[in-house]
């Protein structure tokens, strides 16, 4: 496995590769990332993982400075799985102030985007830069960041990028908590509490499968349960999986998404729901 830190060196290394599969990350890798890198092997002969904490997707007061940078440990986890780790410095990806941005679709201003203004603009901009540098035939993104996956897919489609965007399943701890680099911020007590987010998503899913269509009431119940246990909730939302727009009674492919703060840690999670249409006789 080669560790490369400049764009030029990476371009030279990949020039003669017939097919590249790419996993962009911000590092501090856990088993969820590792499973995306394993999955990448099915999509290209050369597997590239990037590790880059992207300043332009963090807002003022967010955790850009404190985001864990663990390059050595990350590379140890990728040994034998990736062929190349691309870990550029900020000055390599942003040699001059970034003034050209990708404008994500309007849905990027909802859900997480409503609480993190400019976040998805920073994400799609860096992802486009990375795709232009790596030029993979496939790029793998985790479904835990469901809205991120949605806006990246929209960008790839609408900007005609010659890349297949592949979704990777969310990996969960034994109690159901979605694996996330930010779980490392949780105290021991918060870690036990953290699974409540997923349990609430599961309850909303069960109620919908059982026939409930009052999505607003289900959202309110989940928010109330979280708040009663000390969470500060950004949102719990039932959305159409295809569009991420508010779910209508006729939508059959749904997703329940949530973001909430437990102490100083913001956790996000989601669960898909497939509603079977009942025929009326
Ligand atoms: O999901 C992430 O880790 C980041 O948002 C990404 C896609 C690597 C862009 O910085």
Query: What is the CATH superfamily classification of the largest domain?
Result: HUPs
Helix content: 25-40%
Count of separate structural domains = 2
User: Which ligands does the model contain, each kind named once?
Assistant: pantoate
How is the main sheet built? 6 strands, parallel
Percent of sequence in beta strands: 15-25%
User: How would you sum up the global shape?
Assistant: globular
Number of strands: 9
SS field, number of helical segments: 10
Give the neighbour order of strands across the main sheet.
Answer: 1-4-3-2-5-6
Low-confidence stretches: none
Rg, nearest Å? 19 Å
How far the N terminus sits from the C terminus, by CA atoms, comes to: 62 Å
Notes on the protein architecture:
By secondary structure, the chain is of the alpha/beta class. Helix content is 35%, strand content 20%. It is built from ten helices and nine strands. The protein folds into two domains: 2-168, 3-Layer(aba) Sandwich (Rossmann fold), CATH 3.40.50; 181-274, Pantoate-beta-alanine ligase, C-terminal domain (Pantoate--beta-alanine Ligase, Chain: A,domain 2), CATH 3.30.1300. Strand 2, helix 2 (31-40) and strand 3 (46-51) form a beta-alpha-beta unit. The strands form two sheets. The chain has a six-stranded parallel beta sheet with strand order 1-4-3-2-5-6, sandwiched between helices. Strands 7-8-9 form a three-stranded antiparallel beta sheet, covered by helices on one side. Bound molecules: pantoate (PAF). Pantoate binds at residues 24-26, 54, 57, 123, 126-127, 145, 148.
């Amino acid at each position: 496995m080669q560790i490369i830190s400049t764009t030029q060196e990476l371009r030279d290394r990949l020039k003669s590769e017939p097919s590249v599969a790419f996993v962009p990350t911000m590092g501090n890798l856990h088993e969820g990332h590792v499973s995306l890198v394993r999955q990448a092997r099915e999509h290209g002969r050369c597997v590239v993982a990037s590790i880059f904490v992207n300043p332009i997707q963090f807002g003022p007061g967010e955790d850009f400075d404190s985001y864990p940078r663990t390059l050595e440990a990350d590379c140890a986890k990728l040994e034998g799985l990736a062929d190349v780790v691309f870990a550029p410095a900020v000055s390599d990806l942003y040699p001059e102030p970034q003034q050209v941005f990708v404008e994500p679709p309007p849905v990027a201003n909802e859900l997480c985007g409503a609480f993190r203004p400019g976040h998805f603009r920073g994400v799609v901009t860096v992802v486009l830069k990375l795709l232009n540098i790596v030029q993979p035939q496939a790029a793998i993104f985790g479904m835990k960041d469901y809205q991120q996956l949605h806006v990246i897919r929209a960008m790839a489609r609408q900007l005609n990028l010659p890349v297949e965007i592949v979704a990777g399943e969310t990996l969960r701890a034994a109690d159901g908590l979605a694996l996330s680099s930010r779980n490392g911020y949780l105290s021991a007590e918060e870690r036990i509490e953290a699974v409540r987010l997923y349990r609430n998503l599961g309850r909303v899913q069960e109620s919908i499968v059982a026939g409930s269509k009052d999505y607003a009431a289900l959202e309110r119940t989940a928010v109330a349960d979280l708040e009663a246990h000390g969470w500060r909730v950004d949102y719990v939302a039932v959305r159409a999986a295809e569009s991420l727009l508010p779910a209508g009674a006729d939508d059959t492919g749904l997703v329940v998404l949530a973001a909430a703060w437990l102490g100083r840690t913001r956790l996000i999670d989601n669960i898909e729901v497939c509603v079977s249409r009942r025929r009326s006789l």
